[in-house]
Amino acid sequence: MPPRPPLPPTAERVFSYTLTQKLGSCISPASSFTYQIIKEPDAPSAQASYQVCVGQSWSLSATASPATNTLKWYTSQLDATNRANALLQVAIPTDKKQTLSWYVTQTDPHGCQSKTVLQTVTVSQQATAKLTGDDRVVYDDNLHSQDSTAIRIAFDGDGPWNVTFWDGKTALVNASQNPFVKWVKLKDIAGTTPINSQTVVSFPLQALSGQCGQGSLTGATYSLTLRRLVTDVEPLAVGLSLHVLPNPASSSLRVEWQAKAHQGFGCGCCLRVGVCSGKRIGWVRVWWRWRVCPSVAGRRVSTMCRWLMRRGAWPLGSYSNSK
């Protein structure tokens, strides 16, 4: 059995060997060769996970050390072990929601390859929000000082969602809280915004982010119209009175009105009834009744006009009147 050649140590060094062959008493001229042991490169520095939104342009990155090393990505650990199907750069496909993985290594100029670093990419839907509410409310300093209006925020995309509201306050909203309801006191609005016969107040979200980062604020605002009671800003004419009973109503309304009549005119009433469903007030119907007032001694006089309006085909719920 020929002698076993010496095994070099595993430390990083350069070794030289001399080799001869012998036949009987004859020895061949010697040959020499050099054996160099090179340290395996360290794994590259790379971010382990990415959160990317659908539709964003994104590429994987890593840092080679030293810079003369070459980065290579593989789609499986088996390919990395076999050094097969290597990629020198990776553009993340973001056309749909999905989770993808790559293995990155670095190779030195001698061809030695490092261990792999796993990089995982989660592609998620971008966060969006839609705000809805009562649309229109009536405000009076005395009657509605303790009233509030609900603003409902329906989030889309992958949560949880970090949101900054119009008042600068923030919240972390989980999926179980979606849609999120934020209450706004009417007196707080009136304290900062002069309310006239019809005032529009906007409530825009200031910031929004979800699982994949910054969300879209397109359409993430809500507008509320506040109207003062008609008697506050447009007092009823002298000699005119209007009573609607009961309020709120469930089965019927009794309308009584009296006006100071003028020559050639009669008494009229236009009543608008809204449905209060707990979510919003929607105007459903307008009734108009006109009555010519009788004359006494050739002149028009005031008279009480009465009218009973039954519910009929009204949707179920409570009803309130608004002049």
Give a written overview of the molecule.
The chain is mainly β. The protein has three helices and 28 strands. Strands 6-10-9-8 form a four-stranded mixed sheet.
- In total, the number of strands is 28
- Label the overall shape: rod-shaped
Model regions low in confidence, pLDDT < 50 over at least 5 residues: 230-236, 262-267, 275-301, 317-323
Query: How many helices in DSSP terms?
Result: 3
Radius of gyration in whole Å, from Cα?
Answer: 41 Å
How far is the N terminus from the C terminus?
115 Å
Sheet with the most strands: spatial strand order: 6-10-9-8
What is the mean predicted local confidence, pLDDT?
78
Largest sheet: 4 strands, mixed
Oligomeric description of these chains = single chain
Sequence-ordered SSE layout with sheet pairings:
Layout: E1 14-19, E2 22-23, E3 26-27, E4 31-36, E5 45-46, E6 49-53, E7 62-63, E8 70-74, H1 77-82, E9 98-107, E10 117-124, E11 128-132, E12 136-139, E13 148-156, E14 161-164, E15 170-173, E16 180-185, H2 186-192, E17 199-204, E18 207-210, E19 213-214, E20 221-228, H3 230-233, E21 241-245, E22 252-259, E23 267-276, E24 281-291, E25 295-296, E26 299-300, E27 303-310, E28 318-322
Parallel strand pairs: 6-10, 12-20
Antiparallel strand pairs: 1-4, 2-3, 5-7, 8-9, 9-10, 11-13, 13-16, 14-15, 14-18, 17-20, 18-19, 21-22, 22-27, 23-24, 23-28, 25-26
